[in-house]
Design goal:
This protein is an alpha/beta fold. The chain is about 40% helix and about 20% strand. It starts with a strand and ends with a helix.
Amino acid sequence: MDIITSTSNQGIKNVKTMLAKAKARRQQQAFVVEGPRMVLETPEGFLREVYISQSYIEKSGETVQDFERRFGDKLRVVNDSVMNHMSDTETPQGILAVVTQPAYELSDLMADDKPLLMVLENVQDPGNLGTIFRTAEGAGVNGIIMSADTVDIFNPKTVRSTMGSLYRMPFVISSNLTETIDELQQQGVKFYAAHLAGEKYYDSYDYTGATGFLIGNEGNGLTDAIADKADEYVKIPMGGKLESLNAAMAAGVLMYEANRQRRI
């Protein structure tokens, strides 16, 4: 197999473009994952191209032929300088892949007769979004709905912070969050918003039926338009001089309270 030694290679340039530009990811319906964990957890049918550095092969104790048997014609071997050039991380791990974006419909999130859903409006921090995905998987959430202005789930920082949950947590990006909530309410989903105007604590409500939690922007919270859609405002106890929790932390508190109730 020929080793790619030039950063002007079209495939290498395309990886760099997809790492940098959401538009390119949308147009190609693909994104880039880095590191052995993310690459090896990728469902085989989603892999488009796999790039491995020479040093990664040497450290693995395997041969190029071993990797060819695993990845077939999707495998590309590059020298270390090319891998360093194309990687989005400061310390490249020597393996990355171009992956097809998962796609879901709202009906996929509603497959359970009593779904547990997270609805995110304009969450901007990649770490927060990734943490919410990971926590949602752990808490047994059925799906995540994001407003179109939420940080791109396929942003390389967000992808890393999901630590693989991106492959297992169904999600939908809504172009009109108000209409999406209306549609779900018509299907029996009751929505709860963590809100300063909440009169009762979050653990005072029953989340064992079809439930959705509304989580807003880190700095500004939910817009009035989305907060007004909530069936109930709930509050989370705050000690000291705090007014609110980090968005991912608040989401985690609510998700695991629903998980606790459903286990009981």
